[in-house]
Protein 1
Amino acid sequence: MDSGRSIQDDPDVKVMIAGSTLRKVKSRSWKKQRHFRLLEDGLTIWYKSRWAGRGHSTFSVTEVEAVREGHQSEVLLSIAEEFPADLCFTLVFHGRQGNLDLVADSPEEAQAWIRGVRKLIHKAQTMDEKERLDQWVWDWFQKADKNKDGKMNFKEVKKLLKMMNVDMNEEHALHLFTMADKSESDSLEIEQFVYFYKMLTQRDEVWKVFQDYSGDGEKLMLEELENFLRMEQQEGEQSAQHAKELIDRYEPSETALKQGAMSLDGFQMYLCSQEGSIFNPEHQNLYQDMSQPLSHYFISSSHNTYLLEDQLRGQSSLEAYIQALKRGCRCVEVDCWDGSDGEPVVYHGHTLTSKILFKDVVSTVKEYAFKASDFPVILSLENHCGVEQQTVMARHLSQILGDSLLTTLLDGQVPQQLPSPQELKGKILLKAKKIGGLEQCLDETLTDEVSDDEEMANGDPESPCTEDPPAANKKHKKSKLSRELSDLVVYCKSVHFHGFEHARSHAKCYEMSSFSESKAKKLVKEAGTDFVQYNTRQLSRIYPSGLRTDSSNYNPQEIWSMGCQIVALNFQTAGLEMDLNDGLFRQNGCCGFVLKPEFMRDATSQFSPEKPEGRQGYKPLRLSIQVISGQQLPKVNQKEGSIVDPLVRVEIYGVPQDQAKEETSHINNNGFNPVWNETLNFVIHTPELALVRFLVEDYDKASRNDFIGQFTLPFTCIQAGYRHIHLLSKDGTVIPPSSLFVNISISELTSGS
């Protein structure tokens, strides 16, 4: 039963089970010994201080993304002289959770933990649906078997149901318990518990769908499954071929396989798998044309990338760059200031945020730029250095990045349009000010002064009292630019924006401007179509208001609706806005580039987000979502007796006309298998730009509802039919096996409907 058994015999895993005393390091001065061991489930790592009474902590191997060997974190580098590299390792977690830096007593012990954790991560990642479910059941059994006798009595079962978010009356629970207790010993062993769990998780709503298509109520013959795929899942021609594949892939019963049929178990496994998910698997891999100009793509972009927290006191950290790049971010920001010993530093100027060295940031970018995606990375330089340290910056960029840094025109020609992500694969582009243009690169007589009003050092107070004075009385501050740094800028020259009219007649495709969120929103209202046209040829970067000192975010969807490509968000701040960003960039292989809809790539486009019906090819759609049920929602409150009262809200983000929210009623005291069976309807005017967010909340009549889980995806990536939505935590990480079961239909909006 326990799928972890075979790996338990591995010598490295044995060391982990026996346990080790490791030093946990938080800073140069905070280094404390903790006892670490792997629990019997082969998944949970438990640790406690030697002195603390009963207090201990645990985390699951599934939360660990990678193990780094040696001095591979800022913390371990800071104590490198004290502890040699072969004793040190770092556990890196998914999402925004901080690293765990550890030091072992011997190189052998360090290696055992490094190899052991890597093997366990690999095992967890390669489990199939059935093994995953077995592991999940086994985990619950371990948690509930308080006296560790390998059996569970009725009292332990009642406690377990509370832990699992199930509020079941005692009579029903006892009935299930008695049915499972085949040996009549008033306790369940693991095999009997599996049977109990199966009865508990029987999905009547899935059974009903199964019954609709099954002739004998026992199985779906090939033809019946094919009908289901054609009628309900809207799969058309490929249904016959797909039905065969699904039976081979998901049917656990040998008998059914021999008949070429699918049992209820197999049907449920298919519906819970990636193929039964709401997200179209064909859109998960790279599926878009990557050979169009850069300006034709939305580009995943981060603001103040060096910060892990807020913008006044937060920690500046290389880890923040690693996290953003691993999430597929393709445009990172570097704020550079003169450092004390001739070395430029990166931090949020004039604040108490800590400082990191510019050269360390460049090395980190070099190492992590292409781990998540091969497509280009843009370094957005916010340059506050004097000429001398700018030259130091230029040297670091050239020496550390080497061939990865793009410093020349691709074909030696001054471009009429920007190069494509495909042509720029594996390249890092510098976005900064430049002396002159690409045309005059050879002209040595140019002055090295440039106007300094491009982004007002990103300070942009944005309060109503700082309205721009008329252009005539603007005094442009001039600043000196290092020729060496200027020469590294090719396709992303930062310039001040002088209006759409000026851009149409004078601007070059490699010139780009930055706009604060409020300036961008103002342009939408005043000149939506102009902005869309401008963005077909030139890149524009949008950044959050200077007032957002808490690193909060603005809604990126409103800005994407104008075709702006580089919509910079504070990646360190979880919430709705980052859910939308993750949602848009979840498609196309998570490569950080998403091709804009056709009507936003045409220079003569008449599209305006304010008037979507005015464009060619306007075809609104009706989206109907039947929210059927929820499965094993996580507990919001860890108090033993508390159980959630869940409701589902579906939110549409898109052009102003498409913004909408609808929600179901709440279900009292059931986070385990709530059933709503409510239908929510929407009309979508610009489906190509719409994002759909499914949000599950714990209803509270006295205060704000608590967040339980969410999933956001582009409307164009939705698969119609009976689908599961696998929920994500606030941090964007998976929370298996929490899901929603829905039935989705999408149809054209006819005048009569």
Protein 2
Amino acid sequence: MLGKEGRLFVLGYALAAIYEGPAANLRHNLNEVVASLGCTVELQINNTRAAWRVSTAPLRAVFKGLLGSKVSLKAETQNLSKAFEDLDAQVNSEMGYSPEDAESPERTARGVGTHRAPPSGRHLSTQKMYELKTRLRCSYVVDRAMLSCRHWFDRKHERCMERVRVPLLNHLLCLPMKFKFFCSIARAMEVWCRSRIPVEGNFGQTYDSLNQSVRDLDGEFSATIDLKEEKQVAVLGLNTSWEHVSAELRDLVRRQEAQLGWTLGLLRVLLSCTFLLVLHASFSYVDSYNGDIRFDNVYISTYFCQIDERRKKLGKRTLLPLRRAEDRTVIFPCSPFVQASETRDVVRELAETLPVLLLLLVLCGLDRALYSVFNTVRHHSFLQYSFRSSHKLEVKVGGDSMLARLLRKTIGALNTSSETTVDSSNMRCLPQPVSLNPRAYVRAVLPVGLLLCLCLLQAFGYRLRRVIAAFYFPKREKKRVLFLYNDLLRKRAAFTKLRRAAIVSRAQRQRAPRHHLADVLHRRCPLLRRWLRRRCVVCQAPETPEAYVCPTPDCAAVYCRSCWDDMRRRCPACTPREELSSSAYSDSNDDATYAE
């Protein structure tokens, strides 16, 4: 429970605390930002729509007024059409002249035919046609006057002949009644008809425009307002509204939350079964303890010390105190410190816990940074929208004629006035970030801190495994301790042969004369003696007053007292290999008996 399996159980609580603390708060703040962005865009769209409606309200009111006065406008246009019928009949009338007389050869010979009606294949404008008709009417009046004059002379001649019955005298007296040539004086009026015809120059254009207007007024009066909305595609191939994008984003966040919740639920279920791993690890340790004598056999127990003490009384070689190189491979169970062989496992477990710690620090830092940013945005992004619109248009149409009345009913509809004020703000769209309270931080940090403490306590907890197993299997424990003691004896006996090259190399480095300054500093500066002292060529322990210096000339190798005893009081640096090997062989025969 104090080892790797127990940490799995604590790891579940740590992940759950991280998820429920900074991770959940981070997700909540991000959701607030997403909702704030959607609300802001929707608010802008609503404000734009309201401004457009307010701006177009006067125009829509004008068109509604025109549509409301449809019946009265139609009655006025009918009256105008009836009034225009007389003018139209007068312009299109053929009264006042005779087209047959105008096209006769006799009138053509007299010069009147220059103003006759045009042939059927030729089209003239209204202005030219009306001028031609006016000239023909003028010529027609002159011709009728001359004809009437001749008839008057004829009647007067007949009456004169009836009154004077004397032959020859009546012809003489009635001769002036034969002077019909005086009637030709009226032909001088034709010159006036050709040069001073009373028709304005823009009569035809005005008539055509008025005629077209009257015809248009005769049609059905209607008005409709068509609004066409064009949506621009923000991304090629994507034609979706912001509401759709916002809804999809919220759905994605909800799906991810659901998946994360499901994953955490599954993780909790799996972590709730960690007691099975604890049982499995316990049974595995017991099996390995009884099956492999080398498994976890590195403890210097009380029985180990008793064996060494008994051998010391018998005068045999002992192991305690252990050499510096041997301390790195064994564990003293009662030591309050983490020892060298345990440090590697502790560092590895701390490295495995480091990702959880980094995850906690990153999430807490990110949550705090995002909260600061969102809180700053909330306090400095408040906007007040104020839209004011005023409209006043007045059109005055004077007069009492039919056209004036018509204009008052059409253009007069533009007489509108309005004043609108729209005030809004983005207060409801600002993000509402939430900050974690200190209690939430403590709840998230405590499991991770406990996880780190378990990593440090694992070394001490694993020492208890051997103690518990030894309590239930005491005979097996004695065998394991004897095996460890004998194994260390064999290794120490073979140490000289295995490490002779390294010992010789160190002795050669010590053989080199030391600088005079180093000797002076060694004598005068006690604080520097720790670094200036020579070291044992076997175990690299600092030189002490009890240290042994090889008396062989040009050797001067330094040995601590225990290492000198282990070397059988022979210096491997200056002793020949054959002599050292034979000595080691005889010594090994003397110590062939191991602990029992």
Protein 3
Amino acid sequence: MAMWAQMSPQLQFLPTQMLSELYPDTLPVDVRHYLANWIEEQIWEKFDLDNMEQEPQARILLDQMVRLLQEVAQQNPDVVEKVKLQHLSKKLSVYQTQPMQLVRTVRDMLRKERQLLGQAGIAFPPFQPMSVVPPAANGTPQPVRDDFKADVDNLVLKVLEIQNCRQSLHQMQMEMEPMQDSDQAVRPNQRKHLEYNFTVFANKRLELLRESVYALEQCQSCLILRIKSWRWEQHRSSIGVQFDDNLGSLQTWCEQLLGVNSNLKQELMLMKRDHGEAEQFHTCHETLTLLLQTLVQNSLVVDKQPPQVIKTQSKFSATVRYLLGEKIVLGKPIVLKAQIITEAQARNLGQQSIVPNENVGDLLNFTAVLEHNTASKSTCATFRNMSIKKIKRADRKGSESVTEEKFALLFNTEINITGCESPYSIQTISLPVVVIVHGSQEINAMATIIWDCAFSEPNRIPFVIPERVPWNQMCEALNSKFMSEVQTTRALDAYNRHFLAQKIFDQTDISEDFGNMLVSWAQFNKEVLPGRNFTFWQWFEGVIELTKKCLRDYWTAGLIFGFIGKQHIHRLLQSKVNGTFLLRFSDSEMGGITIAYVGPIDNGGRKVQNIQPFTKKDLDSAGLGDRIRDISCIDYVYPDLLKTEVFKQFFTVLSPPNPDGYLPFKLTTVVNPESSSSTSSIPAQTDLAQDFFDPVYGINMNQNNFSPHPSNCTPSYMSDPVSVHGAIYPPSMPPAPSDEPIDMESLEGILDQFDVRH
């Protein structure tokens, strides 16, 4: 803040145009003023603006800036300023899609300020941060080590200096006492010298105490910010963002600051004894008391979150950790209680810090004892086998579904800290959870959680979320979730992301730029896709499940093109040799992968065809590699690689005869493309031992508009029964009923969901 203290008086002498250039609309002077200290402590100069790997670090700084502005707004008593600051925090969302631009803007601003101060004769070198630890490239904060240690060491040294001053003052008093009884004319100079030194040391003692209290306040503010950042990163990990869950460094920080607070309180008490009550002592005492309360109450964190989608009657667990566990007064065991609260109760909790009296759910096994583990030096309460017996839902608005209603688990207890006179009530809440009554609601409930984790703002009012978000932001969330769930290092490329945008916006133009378009919650998981009976998220989640269970190695090896539209496929394949193919996720069937290939037709022409999608059930019976090997009309993986070379690692070798004499069988996939003049669907036959039917079909592409012929969209076997061993069975059976028992509450939940979506 030192540079801003020098810069702010100079602003009145600057021309209006220069002020506008120095503090643009995207980063106005109000932000510079209110966040001066934080801005000057960051690592703007260490960023390489051409290195996009540092973008996660820039995004963390952006999130922190938004969060700090919101905190300043909440604490500001001036209503006008509060509204203004809240507006400024929302205005920073312009950097969400390009956080490196924020770094550039702030860095240039600070450089210009230094230049202007230099011209005014005020030399100001670039700020070198002490206690700010740059985040890692993966977006998680680095462990607090040397810089934090330096700050705490400085605090400890100040406390030692105060103690030395106290001891020196005591020694001087001892030396001056005999002089009061002796002839003062004998040693007047010596007494005067001692009195002068006594006054100097007394003033120094008081000044050191003030400095120490202020330094403690600054250091603890940084600690609280780090704890909040840890919680925020834990929240973001729900969509796959990497997260370091190690709390060791934060615990050490909490314990050391508690020790400093205790020592300063002791020194303050001794100072009052020596010098009597004074207003400045009272102010220091109030500050230390408030800092202690804040530290004690913010040291309770949910180490292991409960599942964010909880089914009633199902068991789950959670672990709560207390970072000051080693400072708890020994004696009666400390029992933590858990209760489920609504979104409205969570909001009131943040304003009043009072445990809600109304019970909205019957929670079983809701208590746990806080236990200390000497090996790990952690103090935790593990809630095992918790379950929600019944849930009381709030009145829903409009078309809101039960899977959109958010709850949370509140953990609270009363605790005694060594050296503190009275106990403290402490509490913390879990991440938002959605409570369901039947497994069929899980996909939609997970959509609610993903939207919340990906797009909620730091330090928000529980559990406020935006209704619309930029597509670029949505795309990053989808990519993180896909990579995390599939457990792959291969991300969605530009082609995949573009097709996803076409899908969610229902736009067929492959040249359109969707980057800044806004996507709504309704488009994500309330409205079904055009011509389909499922939402965008349900379709995308189906692809995740298929890839995770059947296609992870294929995807990671780069053998699956992934998300791509039929028009784009035609452009890619039309110039390739016959038999060239690529693998894409089906856009018409949930959880399917299809083969698109170019092949000849009877009149000498060529056409692009799509083989009926393979689902998990299909790939469980015969792997994708074996099916590709069997299909004779495909030879080259796009652009021109032999399939036998590319996929050979996935081919199954036929096993030798069994010892019991039975011959092994092999499932073979056959595709028989018909001539282009045919309007019927392309049937596929599979030979398994003697009788087995595995349908595979192709879709003819009209080369003028690249859309499938309507007559070819429905294979004949979908309307005709299939004869298997003399019996007649429809080949596409409805899903088997769930084995789970359905009580009245479950039935109501399913019907509610059905009514909303249909």
Protein 4
Amino acid sequence: MMQNVHLAPETDEDDLYSGYNDYNPTYDTEELENDTAFQQAVRTSHGRRPPITAKIPSTAVTRPIATGYGSKTSLASSMGRPMTGAIQDGITRPMTAVRAAGFTKAALRGSAFDPLGQSRGPAPPLEAKNEDSPEEKIRQLEKKVNELVEESCIANSCGDLKLALEKAKDAGRKERVLVRQREQVTTPENINLDLTYSVLFNLASQYSANEMYAEALNTYQVIVKNKMFINAGRLKVNMGNIYLKQRNYSKAIKFYRMALDQIPSVHKEMRIKIMQNIGVTFIKTDRDKMKKAFQKLIAVPLEIDEDDKYISPSDDPHTNLVIEAIKNDHLRQMERERKAMAEKYIMTAAKLIAPVIETSFAVGYDWCVEVVKASQYVELANDLEINKAITYLRQKDFNQAVETLKMFEKKDSRVKSAAATNLSFLYYLENEFAQASSYADLAVNSDRYNPSALTNKGNTVFASGDYEKAAEFYKEALRNDSSCTEALYNIGLTYKRLNRLDEALDCFLKLHAILRNSAQVLYQIANVYELMEDPNQAIEWLMQLISIVPTDSRALSKLGELYDSEGDKSQAFQYYYESYRYFPSNIEVIEWLGAYYIDTQFCEKAIQYFERASLIQPTQVKWQLMVASCFRRSGNYQKALDTYKEIHRKFPENVECLRFLVRLCTDIGLKEVQEYATKLKRLEKMKEIREQRIKSGRDSSGGSRSRREGSAGSDASYVDPLGPQIERPKTAAKKRIDEDDFADEELDDLLPE
């Protein structure tokens, strides 16, 4: 086995790393300067390498074979030159290929192997920094400028705009000093452009934040015009924003478009935002144009004489006669028409532009009021204030409306009457009838010929139950203004309350001639015909009503009721079903439909209606009893029994439910019948005892009352101490039409025009 094992010889164990410094001196480039032949070859063509011939010994012949034991001999080059690291004539050539690893000639001369250079000792100390050098001063100044810019940004974020601006200015001054020092020490190409850009940009931003728009624009111009700043053209967006704040819309649009042109299409989000700014600017341009147009409208001269011309300055009969003659002639009428037309146009224009020319309609109205006050139409300012209160009303801001209207309590009679009319209307809507009546009196006393004030006063009297007096106020309003539809509508309701149906019908027919498509008027006419026991006419007018409002569930159910009273069940079912489809929560309609299916022997279909009724009124046991009854009539006794048990669980004292449980358990033969029968007897006995107690209590109270009446010497019957229940006029804000709807809810008509 050991015959194949060869041990290593022990003769060559002197040095494992020997021979690594041996190389062919031919490749030693450090001694080329002393090589005469090489230098001669460089200077002349003598040293050009000839082509290899057979006379020259090849490398294969002269190259020795190295063994694994470390014995090596030098290799000759193709030119006969010794290889680097080889030893010839006792002279060792340096091995340049391994110099970087620390193998040098000195190692062969007895020096120790030190590839890391540790034998050279510690490194010399660093040179002390010269703080007086120009480079160091520039670095410190640049650091200070950066710190000032950061402090300026932090102050701006904290809301201290003044401090932020001061820091930005200081940074700008120090940055200019820094630039001059750099120009003295280095070339202009070494100037820090990024620092200059950040300083200027921050300064412009702080100017803009402090509303110093001129300085901000100048600073932005410095950045934009400097071609050395890359993409500085985008800052034209900021310049456009400043022009927008200055309301210079044309320049804002110009700079936005210039910025848009310099932004590449890949930045889609930025381009979209700039286009959005352009659109907003165009809108603001329209607002500015609207304001200018309104001011031009105010400035249009009327070219009419003042009213003082028609007031007699003396008691001269001839002059008075002339003034009386021209007071109402065609020229005076034309002047009145022109003035009325101008006021109408101004009021209409103000109503249109006030909500859109400013951030809110209130600010817009205030601007219009100020412009009107400074013009020849100063009396229209009060009307605009009232319209402002009406706008508050439409937005359901009653507190602001009341505050605005109360400012007119000390104005002249016309304005005071208009404001008091609106205040009366507001308090009436809030059910504060005492306040409503007080302001209605103030409105009537300020202007007795104001039909809206008289109508509101009639409404407050109607709410108190004095229908005759309310009718008088409505009649007076109609005498002052025959086109006052609210007064005509309300007087019709008043006549209906007074059971003067013919007069009520006459009022509503007149109103129908004025308001052809008024659903309220059509309903009132149909209701009056119903009260007059003329169902055919009532049906006819209701058919006109549903042609205008086909989804009115109340009108549809009323039609179903009228057809049912006439015996037409199929038509009644059609309209009741339509009413249920539009408003499936009307208990009366649900009850009728359920009863209709029971009458027609379709108890299964009636179940869904009674189940819905039980959901609407869960505390009413009758709907659940009807559901159980439908199951029982349809033959589903098990379902009926389960339903009755559920009802008994919820209403354990319901006698009717226990009776049906006893009957069903008896018919089916259940053992629970005895339990339910016992409970039924106990409940019936308790009910009987309760009724006897009530009866005995009534007998005793009746006897004592008779004795008291006899002692008083009067046999008068008992009088109910409660007076008639007053139902106040209702608003038309409901989805359904009520027969007692009042017309005072029409805001635009109740308020002065």
